[in-house]
Amino acid sequence: MTSTGLPDLETVVIRDRSAGDTEITGHRIAFVTSKYGGPGQGGRGAKDRWGTQAIWKLASGSYVIVREGFSLLYHAEPTSCRTTNQMVPGDLATLKDLAEASAEHDEMCRPCPDCEPPPVTDLLIDERVRYEWPRSHIDVCKDSRAVVRELKYSRKYSGAVAGVVSEPTRSLLNQAARNDPDWEQAPVVRLA
């Protein structure tokens, strides 16, 4: 904890295969993960797919929201699986890629239970599968109210905007309010 009441200053690199790496130096004031279930859902064991959210406060006083999605799953190539947007999941990968991903997660990548590709131990060295690589979304916000707006309203694939705050996001915002002495509470929304 620093003399300003903020957590210690840290530097982290957010890796993203498509967008490139982003280095953040700031105070991590909030963090949640769904790897073992959302807040209050612990004890169910590690998930094959999970997400993390973090809020960083920069020296400038602005904030950075980092949302990351992770997976241990890989699919057959070709696969019959589809994402919620009807896209083919994952990107082409080989056994070498799966070994690197397994090492990074400290857990072995797993075959999708739906399209049932061969287990890692049976894959040929150059056999292609579709691995769900980590993905990240980073937003820079000028103040804490902008952070709340960014996390409260999400655009669905259909274009609709939802204003519901999930339990993990609520936990994230509560942590930020506790850990940042300058955090401004979101204004009350009055509907009449």
Structure in words:
There is one protein chain. The chain has 192 residues and is α+β, with helices and mostly antiparallel strands. The chain folds into two domains: 9-46 and 56-68 and 142-179, no CATH class; 71-131, no CATH class. The chain has helices spanning 95-105, 144-152, 167-179; strands at 9-14, 22-33, 49-57, 63-71, 73-75, 91-93, 110-111, 129-131, 135-141, 154-155, 161-162. It has a five-stranded antiparallel sheet. The protein has a four-stranded mixed sheet with strand order 6-8-5-7. A two-stranded antiparallel ribbon has the order 10-11. The longest helix is centred in the last third of the chain and has 13 residues, at 167-179. It is elongated, with a radius of gyration of 19 Å. The mean pLDDT is 88.
In short:
By secondary structure, this protein is an alpha+beta fold. The protein has 3 helices and 11 strands, in the order ββββββαβββαββα. It has helices spanning 95-105, 144-152, 167-179, and strands spanning 9-14, 22-33, 49-57, 63-71, 73-75, 91-93, 110-111, 129-131, 135-141, 154-155, 161-162.
